[in-house]
Amino acid sequence: MKLDFVPLNKLTDSKANMRCGRKAPDVSDLIPSVRARGILQPIIVRPQGEGDLSEVVAGRRRWHAALAVAAEHPDAVPDHIALVPAAIIEPGDDAAALEASMLENMARLDPDEVKQWESFTALVKKGRSVEDIATTFGLPEQTIRRVLALGNLMPRIRDLYRREEIDATTVRHLTMASKAKQQEWLALIDDPDTRAPTGQYLKSWLLGGQTIQTGVALFDIAEAGGPVVTTLFGDDAYFGDPQSFWAAQNAAVEARRDAYLAEGWTDVVVVEPSEHFHSWEYEKSPKRKGGKVYIDVRSSGEVTFHEGYLSRNEARKREKAGQPGSLTKVARPEISSTMQTYIDLHRHSAVRADLLKHPSVALRLMVAHAIVGSHLWRVSPDPRTCRNDAVTESAEGCDAEASFDQERRAVLGLLDFSAEEPNVTGGNGDKYGVAGVFLRLLAMEDNSVMRIIPIIMGETLVAGSAAIEAVGGTIGTDMANWWAADAAFFDLIRDKEVMARIVADVAGERVASANAGEKTKTLKAIVRGYLDGADGRTKVERWVPRWMRFAPSGYTERGGIGTVKAHAKVEAARAALAEAEAGPMAEPEEQRLAA
Questions:
Q1: Is the same domain home to 319 and 247?
Q2: Residue-level pLDDT at 102
Q3: Cross-strand partners of 7
Q4: Is residue 81, in this structure, part of any structural domain at all?
Q5: In terms of Cα–Cα distance, which of 74, 75, 59, 72 is closest to 32?
Q6: Enclosing H/E stretch for 580
Q7: pLDDT reported for residue 96
Q8: Segment 216-225 long-range contacts (CB within 8 Å, at least 24 positions apart)
Q9: How far apart are CA 282 and CA 593, in angstroms?
Q10: pLDDT by residue (tens digit) across 401-443?
Q11: 73 lies in a domain?
Q12: What is the DSSP letter of 107?
């Protein structure tokens, strides 16, 4: 018997299974666990004949639960579902298969990983090795190590995982944390005014903001000597010091650049993380025809080498000049540059006149320009920056940003862009790139193009602008759907008069009057108590401060509120537009008669 992972789509039922022949089992109790963590305890299979299928000898319910979860993802089955851990027995031995099935159904290992950890830990204390435990329980050694890694976690974190209040990804990243860092994270869990990072956000929080996997390094990690942080599951490792990583990675990139030049390439261009290499903006060109090497460096640390490319402009120039190194005199073109301008202007006039009859095509062309840009049209995403780290973290971690980012990734897929691109907009203005994106948009249905437009506008809306006020008021944005008061919000309130009015806004005038003499810190605690429904207070749902509402207002007469100023400008514009649409007012009757 050997242990391995078997593709889910290569499994079939076995007649040797003691449950074979029955209808599909009820697996509703297994689906949540399998959906979250995959199959943890291997099923028992044996090869079926000469094909590549394997029969499920034991573990039929787990197999059916995985099939049910896979059916939820018709386009792409998650990796932890697509591959099933299995103990593979020799083919053809029905007796051994039946025996295995009976053992499986009569004595199962507890499926709770925390319980497994307790069992495995007891065996380790008695001198059993990981290999011995894997053999005893019929589990891959990697699974044993993953379960034993839970011992690095504080008991309370294990309890949170046992009760499924945190997911497997969060637990995996917490195994990288020291006990002090785990305590800091638990404090965030306990604080009702903060949102503790989980999942991928937790990894970024643990590693100081930038997560670079060791697998992207072009250099010898041991020789570089930089700190490496790894999960105790043993399947993920990251650089603990991004600065030392980039110093070594950039040196390796320069070494590769020098090597390419020594091989005879005409040029080697390093594309910095702030820029992007888009293949559709280039043409393939071999070394002997002047092709270059582009080294695409991503902010994730990943480096891709694109050999033998020229920008379309360079390729056109070389076509006009003949082969590289040729001294052949360039033939005189059949038209002058002035004639070329004449042709270009008349074609321009004709196309834009006909474009009036094709608004759908014009829309796609506009979207292409917004994505790629041109020398007449440049669109840049709002940087969404703030020098206050707490404000930045609050904005980046909010539900609205997560929702927008999820749709942005879907739109990047529609455009056949990399999912790692930070934005859809902000291209370099290459005219051929505009044409390429435009042709791709022409092939899309209207509803797909309409999905792209909100992402473009969302990325390029200026934070704090009157446009935000105009759009939010028009589409009826309700901030309570996307925002809740957090620690960063309360920390930024320093004005006692304002805080007193917020108490009245949340708890009522009677409570505000009774606590008029309290300190600002106490007033904040009162508001938090009502928002959380703590200490017997009636919980206040969906509260949003006046400054953030659509339409916004202030708490005092002092003013100085950007959102209120923007609202006033928008309302003035609305009034002027309404007045213009109404036309000149009718002349008073007495003036008309006098005239």
A1: yes
A2: 39
A3: 83
A4: yes
A5: 72
A6: helix 562-582
A7: 52
A8: 216/249, 216/300, 216/301, 216/302, 216/303, 217/245, 217/248, 217/249, 217/252, 217/301, 218/249, 218/252, 218/253, 218/256, 218/303, 219/248, 219/249, 219/251, 219/252, 224/248
A9: 75
A10: 888 888 988 998 888 888 777 888 877 666 567 888 888 899 9
A11: yes
A12: S
Residue 548 within a domain: no
**What's the token pair of residue 212?**
């670079």
Residue 103, pLDDT > 50, answer no
Interaxial angle between packed helices 179-190 and 155-162, expressed in degrees from 0 to 180 and rounded to the nearest 10: 50
Residue 422 has a CB neighbour count (10 Å cut-off) of: 15
**So what's the pLDDT on residue 507?**
93
Q: Is residue 41 a part of any domain in this protein?
A: yes
> Where do the DSSP E strands lie in 218-301?
228-230, 237-239, 268-271, 282-284, 292-297
Q: What is the pLDDT of residue 268?
A: 92
Average pLDDT estimate for 542-554: 92
What the block records as the tokens of 214 is 């060791």
Interstrand relation of 11-13 and 83-88 (parallel, antiparallel or unpaired)? unpaired
56: β partners:
13, 45
Find out whether 42 and 138 touch, Cβ atoms under 8 Å. yes
- Asked if 179 and 74 sit in the same domain, the reply is no
Amino acid identity, position 410: A
d(CA 585, CA 579): 9
Q: Are residues 89 and 202 in the same domain?
A: no
Domain of 519, in residue numbers: 484-543
C-alpha dihedral (200, 204, 209, 210), degrees to nearest 10: -80
On the question of pLDDT at 594 being above 70, the answer is: no
**What DSSP string runs through 171-184?**
HHHHTTS-HHHHHH
Distances (CA, A) of 80 to 35, 214, 369, 407: 9, 22, 40, 24
Distance, in Å, from the CA atom of 136 to the CA atom of 139, rounded to the nearest integer, reads 8
Of the candidates 79, 108, 137, which is a domain's last residue?
108
In a shared domain, residues 297 and 359: no
Say whether both 346 and 438 belong to one domain: yes
Q: In 10 A of CB 312, how many CB atoms?
A: 17
Main-chain phi, psi angles of 360, to 5 degrees: -65, -40
Clarify whether residues 86 and 98 are in a common domain: yes
Both 510 and 415 in a single domain? no
521 vs 504: CA distance, rounded Å: 15
Of 404, 431, 463, which residue sits at a domain end? 463
Q: Are residues 365 and 401 in the same domain?
A: yes
The whole-angstrom separation of Cα 594 and Cα 550 is 48
Rg, C-alpha atoms of the chain = 32
Q: Beta strands 83-88 and 2-7: pairing type?
A: antiparallel
CB atoms within 10 A of CB 197: 18
- Mean per-residue pLDDT, 501-508: 94
Structure confidence at residue 315 as a pLDDT band (50, 70, 90): confident
How confident is residue 327, by pLDDT bands cut at 50, 70 and 90? very low
Q: What's the domain count of the chain? A: 5
